[in-house]
């Protein structure tokens, strides 16, 4: 007989709230702010309107997640800073403009790098610090429940930070465009909101880098120490 507990009937995860719903809510709220300025904070929604807002936020959040994956992760992070694996198995010396992202570029200790690579070479014939190494280490390390739990936490955190960062940056763009079509007073409010959204977007991007690196760091450390 199948055991249908209440939690098993809920088709949503923690990431649905942190990764999608929150990002969609930020972007949709920027349109309300672009229309009503600070007065938007005083608007009260009926039960039906609130339900529609939640559903719309979730849907828009998926769109934002796709955009953030393509732009913030693949184009910006991978294109300019490299994948976490590349940095964790890189040199300890960070030079040039990458110093602004030094925390993301910190490598594993040389001894830990050597242990991971030696273990992967002996068990799977892998010699390069690439995606194949990451997948192999994930497959081995994630067999432990406590490892899956800790990596899941970092996954939720970096997913939230990346998606809401993208939503905030898009919100800043929406508010700047709206400010161009308003009088001086309204434009000042909108530009103030845009500046706030921009700051939030940049700060959360750095938080995304932090948790993204920690996710990979946790993986390789557990792999190196696993029996």
Polypeptide structure, described:
The protein is mainly alpha-helical and 227 residues long. It has one domain (13-225). Helices cover 77% and strands 0% of the residues. It is built from 9 helices and no strands. It has helices at residues 6-9, 14-36, 47-81, 84-88, 102-105, 110-124, 131-141, 145-179, 184-225. The radius of gyration is 21 Å and the shape is elongated. It starts with 5 loop residues before the first helix and ends with a helix.
Question: How far is it from the N-terminal to the C-terminal residue, by CA?
Answer: 37 Å
- Using DSSP, what is the number of strands? 0
Q: What Rg do the Cα atoms give?
A: 21 Å
Number of folding domains?
Answer: 1
Helix count, DSSP H or I runs of 4 or more residues: 9
Beta-strand share of residues:
under 5%
- What structural category characterises the helix and strand content? mainly alpha
Largest sheet: none
Q: What number is the mean pLDDT?
A: 87
Shape: elongated
Low-confidence stretches: 1-7
Helix content: over 70%
SSE pattern: HHHHHHHHH
């Amino acid at each position: 007989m199948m055991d249908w507990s209440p939690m098993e009937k809920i088709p949503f995860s923690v990431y649905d709230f942190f990764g999608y719903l929150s990002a969609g809510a930020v972007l949709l709220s920027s349109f309300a702010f672009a229309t009503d300025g600070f007065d938007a904070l005083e608007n009260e929604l009926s039960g039906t309107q609130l339900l529609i807002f939640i559903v719309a936020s979730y849907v828009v959040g998926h769109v934002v997640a796709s955009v953030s994956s393509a732009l913030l992760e693949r184009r910006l992070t991978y294109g300019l800073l490299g994948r976490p694996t590349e940095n964790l198995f890189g040199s300890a010396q960070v030079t040039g403009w990458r110093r602004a992202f030094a925390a993301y570029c910190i490598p594993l200790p040389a001894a830990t790098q050597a242990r991971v690579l030696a273990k992967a070479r002996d068990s799977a014939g892998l010699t390069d610090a690439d995606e194949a190494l990451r997948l192999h280490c994930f497959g081995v390390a994630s067999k432990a429940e406590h490892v899956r739990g800790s990596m899941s936490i970092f996954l939720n955190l970096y997913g939230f930070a990346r998606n809401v960062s993208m939503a905030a940056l898009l919100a800043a763009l929406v508010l700047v465009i709206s400010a161009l079509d308003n009088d001086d007073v309204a434009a000042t409010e909108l530009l103030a909101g845009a500046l706030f959204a921009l700051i939030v977007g940049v700060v959360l991007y750095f938080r995304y880098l932090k948790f993204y690196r920690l996710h990979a760091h946790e993986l390789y450390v557990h792999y190196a120490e696993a029996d």
